[in-house]
Amino acid sequence: MRNGSKKNVTKAKASKAKASKGRATKTKVKASPVRAAKGHSAKTKAAKPAPRKLAAKPSSAKPEATKLAAKILASKQEAAKAEMAKAAAKGELAKAELAKAAAKSELAKAELAKAAAKAVKPVKQEPPFSEGDYVVYPTHGVGRVQAIERQQIAGQDLELFVITFDRDRMTLRVPVPKARQSGLRKLSSHSVMETALTTLRGRARVKRTMWSRRAQEYEAKINSGDPVSIAEVVRDLHRHANQPDQSYSERQIYEAALERLASELAAVDGIERDKATQKLETLLDAA
Questions:
Q1: Cβ atoms 227, 262 nearer than 8 A
Q2: pTM beyond cutoff 0.85
Q3: Which of 274, 206, 282, 217 shows the shortest CA–CA distance to 246?
Q4: What is the pLDDT of residue 122?
Q5: Do 182 and 253 sit in the same domain of this protein?
Q6: How many structural domains comprise the chain?
Q7: CA 221 vs CA 147, 186, 227, 232: distances in Å
Q8: Alpha-carbon gap, residue 165 to 95, rounded angstroms
Q9: Segment 103-122, tens digit of pLDDT
Q10: Are 236 and 250 in contact (CB under 8 A)?
Q11: Residue 239 lies in a domain
Q12: Domain limits for position 262
């Protein structure tokens, strides 16, 4: 009986121990509701799948824009290359032109050198007039070359024309190099003298200006040495029998022009000066 009671006591203690362990477990479970909630939420979170990120769909506009930009860049590069090629071509052309110019310059130098090597002493030019020629000096009229002589003037050896004017009893010496510049010329041709005579037969053209101005114009025409201009002075100042007489100054200018024209006409036609004067007056009276 004792063994049996002991066993029962042992079983009772074991059952009590189990019961106490169960209560402790229940108490522990009840005492940690937060942990249970946390675990539940963790389970919930783990259960929910993460949202998937949508992959960006490739845009069709971006590749087209990229291609267009690439084309534009390529065209710009080609244009830049073309400009550089043009500039290089121009540079080469400029170099070629410089080379040509240098070659021409060298050729010109060579030609000048040849000309200098072949140069000879300049040929002495003959004087335009010879001894015995009749010449016309603008301010003195018709004269004759008496001689061509050399004189030393101011340390220079000069060749001079010695011209005599019989009517004025004057001798004039003109340097040969300055003869053309001074207006010294040969006698007029027969055709020029015919033109002067035709001018004499024309109608007088007297300007209505002050006499002092007209006198200056007349003297300028006489000193020009041109026979046609001198004929105009004679024609404009000539007075017919039924016209009023000339003034003293008009008479002086008229006679100077008539004498100048008659002297050249006599030398051209080979007649005396008086006969040449009569010829001119006859033409004036018949006009």
A1: no
A2: no
A3: 206
A4: 45
A5: no
A6: 2
A7: 29, 18, 9, 8
A8: 69
A9: 887 877 877 777 766 654 44
A10: no
A11: yes
A12: 190-286
Pairing of strands 185-186, 170-175: unpaired
Phi, psi of 99 (to 5 degrees): -65, -40
Q: Scan for tokens 């003297």, then name that residue.
A: 219
The answer to whether position 235 is within a domain reads: yes
Q: Are 194 and 280 contained in the same domain?
A: yes
1-27 pLDDT, tens digit per residue, is 444 455 555 555 666 555 555 554 444
State the Cα–Cα distance between residues 246 and 45, nearest whole angstrom. Answer: 148
- Among 246, 256, 195, which Cα is nearest to 223's? 256
> Phi/psi class of residue 52: alpha, beta or left (left: φ > 0; alpha: ψ in -120 to 50)?
beta
Asked if 165 and 178 sit in the same domain, the reply is yes
Amino acid, single-letter form, for residue 72: I
Alpha helices in the chain (DSSP H): 2-31, 33-47, 61-118, 190-200, 211-224, 227-237, 248-269, 273-286
Residues 197-226 pLDDT 10s: 999 998 888 888 899 999 999 999 999 889
CATH code at 267? 1.20.58.1290
